[in-house]
Amino acid sequence: MTEAIPAQHLVWKPPRLIERAWLRWVILGAIILYLWLALGSIDVNWTRVSEGLVRAARLFAGFLQPDFTTRWRDIQQGLIESLTMTVCATVFGLVLALPIGLGAARNVAPLWLYGLCRAFIALARAFQEIIVAILFVAMFGFGTFAGFLTLSLSTIGFLSKLIADDIEEIDPAQVEAIRATGGGFWQVMDYAVSPQIGPRFVGLTAYKVDINFRESSVIGIVGAGGIGATLNTALDRYEFDSAAAILLIIIGIVMICEYGSGWIRKAMA
Amino acid sequence: MAIVIGSDGARHWTLLTPGEQRWRWFGWLVLAALTVFCWRIMTADTIWAFVADAPTQAADIFGRMLPPRWSYIDQLWGAIWDTINIATLGTLIAIGLATPLAFLAARNTTPSVLFLRPVALFAIVASRSINALIWGLLLVAVLGPGVLAGIFAIALRSIGFIGKLLYEAIEEIDETQVEAIRATGAGQMQVIGYGIWPQILPAFATICVFRWDINIRESTVLGLVGAGGLGLALEGSLNTLAWPQVSLILLIILVTVILSEWITAQVRRMII
C-alpha cells in the first residue's frame, strides 16, 4: 500500500551512467591514479618557465606591434611557396583522386581493383603529413617539391576515400536507368554518377584547399618549404615581432580559406 | 545548375544552357591556368637532378630502415608514456576551458550576445586556425622544451575544435525542455544542469573522445619542435641518421594511432 510521501522527501536523481557502484569506484580510482602518475611525470623547470614568461611578454608585445618589414622578403618567399604548393597539390591530388576513388567504390569497381585502391588509400592516410614530409625531404631534398608531394598524397588519401564512400552511397536507380538505355561505362559515369556526387565533391575539394594551406604552414618546419620554415627561423632567432607578423598572416589566410570554402560548400550543397 | 529544385520540392535534371556551359569551361580554364602558373613558380628552385635521383634515394632509405632495431624499444617506453600523457592531459585541459567558452558562444545560452559572444567566438576561431605544431613552436620558445609545452600546445589547439562543435550542439537543443525547467522557477545553473546538459551529453562525450583520438596523432609529432614524446625520439634518430630506429618509431606511431582509433570506436559505441 502506498502512502502519501511528504513532497520534500521526493528528490529526483538523474540516472547513473554506470549502474554498478563498485565498477564506478574502480573506474574513478583508475582515473585518479592515472592523473596522479601522469602529472607526476611532468618535470617543470621553474627557472626556465620564469625566463619564458619574459619571452611570452615579448611575444605578446610582438602581436601588438607586428614587424612585417624587416623580414618581408623571407615572409613573401614563404607565402608564395605555401600558396603555390597548396594550389598545385590540391589540383594534382584531385586529378589522381578521381580514378582512385572510382576504383575504391565497391559498386563500380571489380574486387581486385577495389582491394588495391582501398589499400593505397589506407596507406596514404596512415601517417601524418609531417612524417610523410620528413620522408619526402629525405628522398627529394629540401624545398617545395617535397612539400608538394606530401600535400598531394594527403589530398589523394582524403578525397579518394570520400569520393569512394560517396559513390558507394549513390542512388543505383539512376545508374540502372542509364545502363538500360545502353550507356557504356563512361556514359554511366557522366550522366548517373557524376551528377550525384559532383556538388558535394566540389565542396570537399574547397575544404581540402583550406586544410592543405594549414598543413603547408607547418611542413616547412621539417624542411619541406613554405611559410612554416620562415616562422621556425624567426622563432629560433627570438624575433618575436616577425613571428607575430607571420602568425597574423597565416591566421588571416586560414580564415579567408575557411570562409571561402564554407561559402562554396553552402553554394554547392 | 544541372539539378534544379522545382516548386514541388523535387529535384529535376535539366541540361545546362550554352551560357552556363561557357562559364563552366571558363572556370576550368582559369583553374588550369592558375595551376600551371603556380607550378612554374613552385618548381623554379627545384633541383630536378634530386628528383630524378629520388627512387634511388628512396630505395636506399628503405633499405637502411629494414629491419627495425627492435632493441631500441627499451628506450622508447618513456616517450610513449609522454605522448599519451600529452594527448590526454591536453584534451582534459581543453575540455575544461572549452566547455564554458561554448556556453558563452552559443546564441541561446550566452549572457550577452553583443559582447561576450563575439569574444568567445574569436577565442574559438583563433585557437582553431593555428596548427598544434605552431602552438608547439611558440610554447617551446616560452616554456622551454618538454612535456609541459606539448600539453599546452595540444590544449590550445583543441579548445577551438571542442568549443566550436559543442556550441553548435548547444544551439541545436530542444528549447521546450529548457522552457519546462525554467517554468519550475529554476536558476540559470539549474537550467543548464537539468535542461541543457543532458541533451548535449552524448555529443559532448563523442566530441571529447574524437578530439582525444586526433590529439594522439598530433602528439606523436609534437616532439619534432621539442615538445616531448615520440617525436623527440624521432628527431634524435633522424639527426643521427639512425634509420632502423626511425622505422621502429614509425611502427610504434602507427600502432599507437590504430589503438587509439580502436579505443575511440569502442567508447563511441558505448555512448551512442
From TrEMBL, chain A:
What is its membrane topology?
Multi-pass membrane protein
| Species annotation | Prosthecodimorpha staleyi
Keyword Transcription carried by entry: no
Q: What is this protein called?
A: Phosphonate ABC transporter, permease protein PhnE
Q: Per the record, GO CC terms?
A: plasma membrane
Q: Which gene encodes it?
A: phnE
Q: What GO annotations for molecular function exist for this entry? A: ABC-type phosphonate transporter activity
- Record CDD domains: TM_PBP2
Q: Where does the record place the ABC transmembrane type-1 domain?
A: 79-259
Which keywords has UniProt assigned to this entry?
A: Cell membrane, Membrane, Transmembrane, Transmembrane helix, Transport
Q: Where are the transmembrane segments?
A: 22-39, 83-105, 134-159, 243-264
UniProtKB/TrEMBL annotation, chain B:
**What name appears for this protein in its UniProt entry?**
Phosphonate ABC transporter, permease protein PhnE
| Span of domain ABC transmembrane type-1 | 80-264
* Protein family: Belongs to the binding-protein-dependent transport system permease family.
Keyword Transmembrane helix present in the record's keywords: the answer is yes
Species of provenance: Prosthecodimorpha staleyi
Transmembrane region(s)? 25-42, 84-106, 113-130, 136-156, 191-212, 242-263
A single GO cellular-component term from the record reads: plasma membrane
PANTHER family listed in its UniProt record: ABC TRANSPORT SYSTEM PERMEASE PROTEIN P69, PHOSPHONATES TRANSPORT SYSTEM PERMEASE PROTEIN
Question: Do the record's keywords include Transmembrane?
Answer: yes
Q: Where in the cell is it found?
A: Cell membrane
Q: Which InterPro entries match?
A: MetI-like, MetI-like_sf, PhnE/PtxC
